[in-house]
């Protein structure tokens, strides 16, 4: 399923895709790394709740 989506993005000219994984989600991190995704150490995510 992931490859189907990535192929569709590639066909539309999109050359990079990102995803978010919680630090404590070891199973998720292992899965994505085994399928060719890599961790970006140079980026931080900032969020703000606007209640």
In short:
This protein has about 50 residues and is mostly helical. The protein has helices at about 1-10, 25-35.
Describe the structure.
By secondary structure, the protein is mainly alpha-helical. It has one domain (about 15-50). Helix content is about 35%, strand content about 0%. The chain contains 2 helices and no strands. It is extended, with a radius of gyration of 14 Å. It starts with a helix and ends in a 17-residue tail after the last helix. The mean pLDDT is about 95. This is GCN5 family acetyltransferase. InterPro entries: Acyl_CoA_acyltransferase. It comes from Petrotoga halophila DSM 16923. One of its GO terms (molecular function) is transferase activity. Keywords: Transferase.
Number of alpha- plus pi-helical segments = 2
Q: Which percent bin holds the helix content?
A: 25-40%
- Briefly note the structural class of the backbone: mainly alpha
Question: What's the alpha carbon Rg, rounded to whole Å?
Answer: 14 Å
Overall pLDDT metric: 96
Biggest sheet: strands, sense, closure? none
- Strands, count: 0
Q: Whole-Å distance between the termini?
A: 35 Å
């Amino acid at each position: 399923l992931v490859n189907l989506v990535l192929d569709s993005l590639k066909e539309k000219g999109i050359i990079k895709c990102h995803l978010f994984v919680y630090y404590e989600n070891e199973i998720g991190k292992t899965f994505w790394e085994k399928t060719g995704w890599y961790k970006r150490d140079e980026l931080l995510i900032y969020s703000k709740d606007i209640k």
